[in-house]
Write a structure and sequence with these properties.
Strand content: 15-25%
Number of helices: 2
Low-confidence stretches: none
Number of strands: 4
Strand order of the largest sheet: 1-2
Structural class: alpha+beta
Shape: globular
Length: 75
């Protein structure tokens, strides 16, 4: 049912920290059905684990939230 999320789960299978689905996909998971097409897949992680994301391959970009605004993490 959630093909895109299963692909994400496979991609993150070796990620050495906890993560959780956020945004619109989180709502869809909660109600048990896909409610709309999603342009992205958002996950959340603990701040202490943020640099582990840089070790992942295949990410198009990483954003973070500061002052309630999404910013591109391009360090």
């Amino acid at each position: 049912m959630f093909v895109e999320l299963n692909a994400l789960k496979d991609h993150l299978k070796d990620f050495p920290a906890h993560y959780w689905v956020a945004g619109g996909w989180a709502v869809d998971l909660h109600i048990g059905r896909k409610t709309r097409e999603h342009k992205d897949t958002e996950i959340a992680i603990d701040r202490k684990d943020q640099y582990l994301l840089k070790q992942l391959s295949g990410l198009r970009y990483i954003e973070y939230i500061k002052d309630r605004k999404a910013k591109l993490w391009d360090e």
